[in-house]
Amino acid sequence: MARINHDTIDLWQGWQRRELRVDRCADCGTWVFPPRPFCPDCWSDTLVGTVLTGAGRLVSYSRPRVAPGAPPVVSGVVALTEAPGVRLLARIEGIEPERVTLGMQLALGWWEDAGGVYPQFGPVDADQVRLPADAARGADAAAAGGAGQGAA
After folding, report:
1. If you compute the radius of gyration of the chain from its CA atoms, what whole number of angstroms results?
2. Which of the chain's termini has less CB crowding within 10 Å, N or C?
3. pLDDT per residue as tens digits for the range 124-147
């Protein structure tokens, strides 16, 4: 479960509604992420929570080895298209791990566990999407909330 405090409560509550919210400074326009009480550029405390669609591109990822039979989990750093400079660490789903590539375009989706709802991302390009026969081999994106689903 994520650590929730007075700086992260809006982000967390947005995730539970399947909204990707990032603060933006009302005075200078700087995107502020991770959440904090003031703008790192102009020090203003006038921050406005902004809902984003979650379009982005993959700038880094990790494909750790897992035990035989365990579903692979790819974690990636996603640069959000609508919020320059904002990068989010999240699961990458809906694609075979060996087909993940740097620079690939991604769409926002959501997954749930006992602790809440969290963002995840999946490929935008139809050629990269995991085929139905492939989904049975790993952690099926649909069972996890499906990347690309639920973006508002």
Report:
1. 16
2. N
3. 976 666 543 333 333 343 334 444
